[in-house]
Structures are given as structure tokens and as C-alpha cells.
Amino acid sequence: MMGGASENDNASQWFLERANGGDIVVLRASGSDGYNDYFYSDLGVNVNSVETLKILNLAGATDPYVLDKVANAEAIWFAGGDQYDYVSYFKDNEMEDLLNAHVNEKGGVIGGTSAGMAILGGHYFDAQNGTITSALAISEPYHNKVSIGHRDFLDIPYLKNVITDTHYDDPDRRGRHTVFMARIIADSEDPIRPIGLACEEYTAICIDNEGAARVYGSYPAEEDYVYFIQPRCADYDPDVILLGAPLIWEDGVIAYKIPATEDGLYAVDLNFFADLAIDQDNTEWQQWSVYQNSNTLSVTESENPDCALLSNQEVGSENILVYPNPFTNALVIKNVPNAIITVVDVLGKKQNVIFNSASETLNTSHLPKGIYFLEVETENGISVFKLMKN
Q1: Which of 128, 204, 278, 388 could form a disulfide with 326 if both were Cys (CB 3.0 to 4.6 A apart)?
Q2: What is the pTM of this model?
Q3: Domain 9-301 is classified in which CATH homologous superfamily?
Q4: In this structure, what DSSP letter does residue 39 have?
Q5: All CATH 3.40.50.880 domain ranges in the chain, comma separated
């Protein structure tokens, strides 16, 4: 995922290497075929072919030739442009099915820059009514330009609860991204704790099949950063988010600002987003807040929210640590040798789960969203943890 200016060569090489010498398909709705030479010969990674398909309408997206090329690609790249073109042409048809099968069944690599990055999250700003500034989004969070899709397009591992944004340094998009996250929380029927991933213009985030998100840029030669953003660990609802009223969200979100280096030095594990901290002096935690009568984003220094420590232990005296909470596909359970692990839903029904004691992880990918009670039984008794799956 790239921020929208010129491509980052190291991140592009990372992308091509995961095609394993296969065929690359570039999908775009405007522009030319400049990626053909760039991917095929400029980066020094051997691939079988690179073909750019310029899609101008729904008929083009579902053309048999186009669908065949996408079906047989080892890597798919979305160029920039207008993300609503991609949503309009590729959503709810055979192209959408092929794109999701490419990732989830074939195990292919997928990526994009600018508009191409914007559509990759499970939640996405679709720009149906044009772009929007941070100032307008904060002053009118229900403006028709704040148009967001929710889990109805691309289904990409580790991005189901993510909303991305790009061009983060020019113009400043932190305010509107905060509004996007507030809208996801306010508009969802089920509890959702959204995650934001953002790239400045010359940076990239590369996520491997294990959920490690490595960041690339030109730091320290250039002030290149990426952002990993989350609401507070609990009680994170916006204070005021109403039609016709400015957003008020004093607790706001916590942003982890990470230098994007040429060698991809920094990486975070998206399996356990709450445990992001990288032990380096040049990373920075910030709080982004919107206060009453301000209509602007306030940025102050903050610290790791330590959601990993939000274990919510209710019964028992063991020094047991369970995180993250809320969780998605896995839980980490520490300090539980020789324990019996039981997961119970709110109706009292036991759920089938497998605890890997070696890695201290519990696979929860099959559990529906909702509230659960985790029972940890050791020789000293039973500890109970109340948890929420997003």
C-alpha cells in the first residue's frame, strides 16, 4: 500500500518478489501503461509478464478477456486515480469475486497506490461525491462527501477492520481520517473498534501473510512517516457525532507515527494491533482530539495506550495476561502453563477453540462477532475474562 506520489522501489520489489516469477496485472481507470516497464525490467525482479488493463466502465471490468487475465495473475496492482471508479466498476460483480478469490483462495499478492490503497481496507472512503478536506469533514461529519463503504467490497486478511488514507502529508488528512473512524463507530450496529493505516506520499506499508506490516520510505534522508491509528482501548465512542453538527471527540484516537526507512527497518504485527510498540526513540505516539467549538484537530503527545493490558480479569488471582481486547482472529494468553482454556458466548454455549501453548495463541478466527467469556482453569482456580470480538 503506497501513499500516492512516485512509487517506492524497495516496496515495489517486495511486492514483485511475492509474485514468485508469475504474471502481474495492473488495473487502472485512467492514465497510461508506465507500470509495464517499471515492474517488468526497472526493478530487477524476474517476473513472467506485466500487463496494464485500463478499465473505463462496468462492461470493461466484466469483459471475459479482463476477467481471464485477473484470474490467472499472481499479483494485482491498483493504480491511482479516482477510487470511486474502482468501486463502481469492480464491486458486486465477477471482478469483485475474482479479486477476493485471488487473495483468499489463491494466496496471490495485491496492492495499490493512492486510490488503489484507499479501496483495500474492509472499510473504505469511496469518494462517491468527490474528495473532502479535514476541515469540512470535522465541521460536518455527515456531509454527503463523507461517503464510506463497510465490509462490502474487498475482503483482505488483516484489513477487515481497517480504513486507510493516503497523501497524508500533502494535504493534511489526519482530521478527515479521524472522522472516518468516528463514523464507523457511530454507524455500525455491532460494536466496532476501527483501525486506521495511513501513508505519507512517498511511503509504503507492506503486509505479509503472517500479518507483519513493514514500512518503507526514505527516512532519515527525508521526513517520511506512516501512521497506525486506533481509538482508546475501551469507551471510545465519539462525544458528539450528529447530522448538522461538528464532531466532538475529546478522547479521539491514538496514532503511532513510525519512520519509513529504505530498508524497511520497522514492522508491526497486525495480529495483535494493541501491542504495537517498537523500542526506538524516533517513533512517536500522538493523541488526535476534536474539542467543542474548535472544528479542528488537536494533536498532542501521547503514549502507548497498552490495550494489551486490558485483560478485564473478573475472577481468580493468577497473574494471567489476555490481549487484545477487543480481538479479531486471535488472542494471546500468557502465564498459563498446564491450563484448561474454555470460551463461552453470552448464551452460555461453549465454543470450540484450540490453544497453542507453544505460541501462547488462541485461534478465534471462526468465532462470530460478539461478547465472550474466557475461562482459564489452573491448579489455583479459574480466572474469567470478559472479551469482545469485532
Answers
A1: 388
A2: 0.81
A3: Class I glutamine amidotransferase (GATase) domain (3.40.50.880)
A4: I
A5: 9-301
CATH number of 311-389: 2.60.40
**Closest of 202, 372, 220, 225 to residue 286, by C-alpha:** 225
What are the percentages of helix, strand and coil residues in the chain, rounded to 5? 20, 35, 45
Q: Residue-wise pLDDT tens for the chain (390 aa)?
A: 999 999 999 999 999 999 999 999 999 999 999 999 999 999 999 999 999 999 999 999 999 999 999 999 999 999 999 999 999 999 999 999 999 999 999 999 999 999 999 999 999 999 999 999 999 999 999 999 999 999 999 999 889 889 999 999 988 899 999 999 999 999 988 778 899 999 999 999 999 988 889 999 999 999 999 999 999 877 899 999 999 999 999 999 999 999 999 999 888 878 665 445 555 668 899 999 999 999 899 999 998 876 654 444 444 445 788 888 888 888 888 888 788 889 987 666 788 888 888 888 899 999 988 888 888 888 777 788 888 887
